[in-house]
Amino acid sequence: MKIYIIAGEASGDLHASNLIKEMKAVDNSICFRGWGGDLMQNQGMDLVKHYRDLAFMGFVEVLMNIRTISKNLKFCKKDILDFKPDALILIDYPGFNLRIAEFAHKNGIKVFYYISPQVWAWKKSRVKTIKRVVDKMLVILPFEKDFYKKFNYKVDFVGHPLLDVISNETKPTDNKLFYRKNDLPEKPIIALLPGSRKQEISTMLKIMLSICKYFPTYQFVIGGAPSIPFDFYKEFCEKFHVKIIFNQTYDLLKNSTAALVTSGTATLETALIETPQVVCYKGNNISYQIAKRIINIKFISLANLIMDKKIIVELIQSDLNSENLKSELDKILNNLNYREKMLEDYKKLKEKLGGKGASENAAKLILKTL
User: Fold this and answer.
1) How many Å apart are CA 242 and CA 311, to the nearest integer?
2) What is the C-alpha to C-alpha distance for residues 135 and 87, in angstroms, rounded to an integer?
3) What CA–CA distance (Å, rounded) separates 277 from 194?
4) Are 226 and 193 spatial neighbours (Cβ–Cβ below 8 Å)?
5) I need a surface site. Which of 13, 154, 287, 343 has the fewest CB within 10 A?
6) Tens of pLDDT along 257-273?
């Protein structure tokens, strides 16, 4: 059996790699080819193109890179036809993946979508396309099943794959060993997770690091994105005398008193690891103004969306400044009631997401259908 699989971001690479692992556990003869990252490649997938060459964030940025995106689409379609897969599995990344889904459907290739596009937030019209070209949709957020039901489209809720990942990778560790291993002084840590794309890291890190001077009894440590080279972070590290750690994000969060996290999957990971956090987001102002007018959601962080209430403060666009960031971090560090309430809400969030086994559930459903 041959499977073509496409993930366009770091989080997609993570979840796709675990899906590949579970599918191979059932049938080790499956041949995987696709677009993604190092984690998918490590599971034996033939990597065609890396996600670091695909991720464009914001309306303006997409327009500026429209030629590159068009070339990628054309190349991807040809590669799929040459490979002749039995099925196509798409991981989130809707702008690109829905176009590929339409193409695959026209060419008689069975299409699975694992991790739904956030059509409940904007572009609900995309549901019509999904119903027409996607053979099976596997969702990971509990409210998504009811959302699709309104459109008379049956989807399968498999649970959230992060529950498995975090459960497997956050075994109890020796706090002192973590400090020694990374040559860190014995001061409490505030983790900085500025994102996985160069564009957002440049914007977010400057603001996050601007408050270092207000918390001299803490050390700020950057969780480096695996696809971004150290040299890109170098000027930030040297200017603010902070440490950067790669490939240990979960251990970093586990050993941190608090975290400043760029909006995205990392905010949910931080919540599931139970590290108090401030969610941060600042993008191109034109892109933000467009998004503000067409996106219909109360929150930007997954934890708040899943709980349908604010359990974490979100500092967005002009609200993300040194003064507000300092104030919110101060509450987390020095207001015990505030901190404990957030940790209590984290536990309720885990309960709402259900149990473990999302990747295994998804793998079995796909193979059963095939």
Assistant:
1) 29
2) 10
3) 13
4) no
5) 154
6) 999 999 888 999 999 99
Which tokens sit at 272? Answer: 């599931």
Tell me: domain 2-159+355-369, CATH 3.90.550.10, correct? no
- Distance (Å) of CA 359 to CA 28, 43, 115: 16, 14, 11
Longest CA–CA span in the chain (Å) reads: 61
Confidence class for position 64, pLDDT limits 50, 70, 90 = low
Mean pLDDT in residue range 37-64 = 78
Task: Determine the 3-state secondary structure of 264 from DSSP.
Answer: coil
Identify the weakest region by mean pLDDT among 7-11, 38-42, 84-88, 363-367: 7-11
Q: What is the CA radius of gyration of the chain?
A: 21
Domain residues of the chain, as ranges? 2-159+355-369, 168-353
Measured in degrees and rounded to the nearest 5, phi and psi for residue 231 equal -55, -30
Q: Do domains 2-159+355-369 and 168-353 have the same CATH topology?
A: yes
Higher pLDDT, 138 or 93: 138
Q: Are 111 and 87 in contact (CB under 8 A)?
A: yes
Residue 146 is encoded by which pair of tokens?
Answer: 């009811």
Closest CA to 260 of 338, 354, 345, 325: 325
Residue 113 has pLDDT above 70, yes or no: yes
- DSSP type of residue 65: T
CATH superfamily of 168-353: Glycogen Phosphorylase B; (3.40.50.2000)
- For the chain, give the number of residues: 370
Sheet strand arrangement including 256-262: 243-246, 219-224, 189-193, 256-262, 277-281, 314-316
192 and 205 in contact (C-beta within 8 Å)?
yes
